[in-house]
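Why should sequence recovery work at all? Because a backbone constrains its sequence more than one might expect. Tight turns favour small or flexible residues, buried strands favour hydrophobic ones, and helices have their own preferences. The token representation captures these environments compactly. In the example below, the structure is given first.
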């Protein structure tokens, strides 16, 4: 498979890239900082310098031609303000969807966040406004991408991410209580979804007791 990953230098993206490359697949990482190219090459990935905040659809589509799937694992990151939540977590996700459509790549995996529904109707009382903007941006991307018939979309909403070693066991369902999940396991779940070929899926992810392969297979 040839998989294009937006946010290619992110912690989840690099883990996914290594999993893909180790089994012989091609992982293409979209990055905005050319200084990160060597890191991706070291992971066995193909780096492509392309800033999704400052490009146009057809330039992204050119990179996606021939891909088997796209993964949006980008994020504005901690320390960024409300404006970048909108331009990255929402705007870049939508741009990637437009480019996937143009390049005729149907599978689209969107890494979102647990808790997005909390901010659907505004900033909950006591919630940091920047974090609320992050959740709203992720939710807006979900709402705009899921209905698109030209895409086979999987939305993964992980809980709080940790750098603990993965266990290979998770809880993957709707209405999951808040919890944590290692980035290793998030990457492994994404890989399993890439293999499973599911569509129109929205699930939450935390650590649990079910082996990842079984958890993904059980998703309708």
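From this structural description, the recovered sequence reads:
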């Amino acid at each position: 498979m040839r998989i294009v990953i937006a946010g290619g230098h992110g912690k989840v993206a690099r883990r996914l890239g290594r999993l893909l490359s180790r089994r012989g697949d091609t992982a293409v990482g979209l990055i905005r900082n050319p200084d990160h190219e060597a890191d991706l090459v070291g992971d066995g990935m193909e780096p492509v310098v392309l800033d999704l905040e400052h490009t146009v659809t057809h330039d992204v589509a050119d990179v996606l031609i021939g891909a088997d799937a796209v993964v949006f694992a980008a994020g504005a990151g901690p320390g960024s303000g409300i404006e970048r939540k909108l331009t990255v977590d929402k705007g870049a996700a939508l741009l990637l969807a437009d480019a996937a459509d143009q390049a005729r790549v149907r599978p689209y995996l969107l890494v979102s966040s647990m808790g997005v529904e909390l901010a659907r109707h505004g900033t909950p009382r006591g919630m940091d406004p920047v974090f609320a903007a992050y959740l709203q941006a992720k939710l807006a991307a979900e709402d705009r991408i899921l209905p698109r018939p030209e895409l086979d979309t999987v939305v993964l909403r992980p809980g709080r991410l940790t750098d603990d070693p993965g266990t290979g066991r998770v809880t993957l369902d709707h209405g999951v209580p808040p919890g944590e999940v290692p980035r290793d396991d998030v990457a492994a779940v994404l890989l399993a979804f890439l293999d499973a070929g599911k569509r129109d899926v929205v699930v939450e992810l935390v650590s649990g007791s079910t082996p990842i392969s079984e958890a993904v297979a059980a998703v309708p």
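A few observations help interpret the result. Residues 2-217 form a domain with the Rossmann fold fold (CATH 3.40.50.720).
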